[in-house]
Automatic annotation (TrEMBL):
Its EC number is 2.7.1.-. Removes the 2'-phosphate from RNA via an intermediate in which the phosphate is ADP-ribosylated by NAD followed by a presumed transesterification to release the RNA and generate ADP-ribose 1''-2''-cyclic phosphate (APPR>P). May function as an ADP-ribosylase. One of its GO terms (biological process) is tRNA splicing, via endonucleolytic cleavage and ligation. The gene is kptA. This is Probable RNA 2'-phosphotransferase. It comes from Chitinophaga agri. One of its GO terms (molecular function) is NAD+ poly-ADP-ribosyltransferase activity. InterPro entries: Ptrans_KptA/Tpt1 (IPR002745), RNA_2'-PTrans_C (IPR042081), RNA_2'-PTrans_KptA (IPR022928), RNA_2'-PTrans_N (IPR042080). Gene3D superfamilies: 3.20.170.30, RNA 2'-phosphotransferase, Tpt1/KptA family, N-terminal domain (1.10.10.970). Keywords: NAD, Transferase. The keyword Transport does not apply. Belongs to the KptA/TPT1 family.
């Protein structure tokens, strides 16, 4: 499959598995899973012609591991980033002392005032390394990397989760825990 085709399918999967499953008439169970065969059938009748093997390729080659199959490969879900209500079933986890968040300069005034907020998503996403945060921040322009004192947040009672693809999740980060 061509790189651009893989990218387009990945973006479409992000839309339907994270935000708008109704776009193609699928439903997500309470944990975000949907049936692979139904997903393929709905995609093939409305938007993309894609085989099971091509879907596997998109999941396997996604550099951010945005999607995952269940153990027997019959269901698929987004690893995190949902704006629709799902429970990923992740247990609380102890974060490292510092995590990172990539953003752009135009948001810094708001972040200094209100901290980091999850906005329309279920969780705020934090990166384990600066390089990943740079990639995230670069999607909207010149990246600004914030260092988050997550160890202290955790000791202060904030809850963190680690998604299957290595993204750290929490509900918010007050400005007092952010190193600008």
């Amino acid at each position: 499959m061509k790189e651009q085709q893989t990218k387009n399918i990945s973006k479409f999967l992000s839309l339907v598995l994270r935000h708008q499953p109704e776009t193609i008439g699928i439903t997500l169970d309470p944990n975000g899973w949907t049936d692979v065969q139904e997903l393929l059938a709905k995609m093939n009748t409305r938007h993309y012609r894609i085989t099971r093997e091509q879907l596997q390729e998109v999941v396997d080659t996604n550099d951010k591991k945005r999607f995952a199959f269940n153990d027997d490969g019959t269901q698929i879900r987004a690893s995190q980033g949902h704006s629709v209500e799902v429970s990923l079933g992740l247990p609380p986890a102890t974060p490292p002392e510092y995590l990172y968040h990539g953003t752009v300069a135009k948001f810094l005034l708001s972040i200094r005032k209100d901290g980091l907020q999850k906005m329309s998503r279920q969780h705020l996403h934090l990166s384990r390394d600066r390089e990943t945060a740079v990639n995230v921040g670069s999607r909207r322009g010149a990246p600004v990397i914030l260092t988050i004192h997550t160890g202290q947040m955790h000791r202060d009672g904030f809850v963190f989760y680690l998604s299957d693809n290595g993204v750290w999740l929490t509900d918010s980060v007050p400005a007092s825990y952010i190193q600008f």
